[in-house]
Structure formats: C-alpha cells, structure tokens
Amino acid sequence: MVALPEPLAEIVEEFTKAPKALRLPLLLDHSKKLVTKDHLSASMAQVHECQSPFFVTVQRSAQGLVLEFDVPAEAPTVRGYAHILQQGLRGTSPEQVGELPDTFYLDMGLGELITPLRLRGMGAIVREIKRQAASLIGPAS
Fold it and tell me: Is 36 strand, coil or helix?
C-alpha cells in the first residue's frame, strides 16, 4: 500500500480511531472549515460524477500544491471531504498526489456512512485532483 502524505494520513487515522457514531459528525465538522472561492474561476474543473455541483482547481505554490474548491453549503458531506483533501494534500508535490489511492476514503470508514453514489463522486474527485496535479509536472531535466 502506498503511504499517504503525512497530513492526510493523520486525518485518516483520526477517522479510523473514531467510533462509527462520531465519524459523520467529524466529517460535518470538516465541512464547516472549508474555505471556498468567492466565485468560480476559469481554471476550476467541474467533477460531473458528483451529485452536487463540485468544482476544483489544483495549483502549485512555493510551498507545494494548493487545492481550491467551490462546493455548495447544501452538500455538507462533500464539503467535509473537500476540506479533508484541502488540508491533507496542502504542500504536497504533484508526484505525491499521483500516488494517492483513489479510494483512500474507504480506510476512513466513510463507506459505512455515505451512499454508493456519493462514494463514486469522492473517487472521481480524487481522480480529477490527480489529473490536474499530473499536468503540473514539468518535463524531465
């Protein structure tokens, strides 16, 4: 199994250790912390597999990758997942993101809480983030 970036591994461990009854409130707590863009930018891609309108962009900064999202407040579980990705992948490299398992969220116990349709959307979000991160990898020297 591929090692997750340390910040993401810590979040996954927090969910894994939490009793099942506390995982959904923990996810909803993450949704309240998500910082989103005030408006859609041309660089944001929509993840069409999501039930809710979900937009993401991955950018490179001096400190590593930065993920920005636009997710409606009416989709708290997906907002929570977006915050987990935003915090867990902040500062990583495109190569690290490329190694991220598409379904790492199942290790968090979210498969017991979220509908299969939403789970497919979560996998699609990871694939889109990986696609955008791969586009930031420069040519080999």
Answer: coil
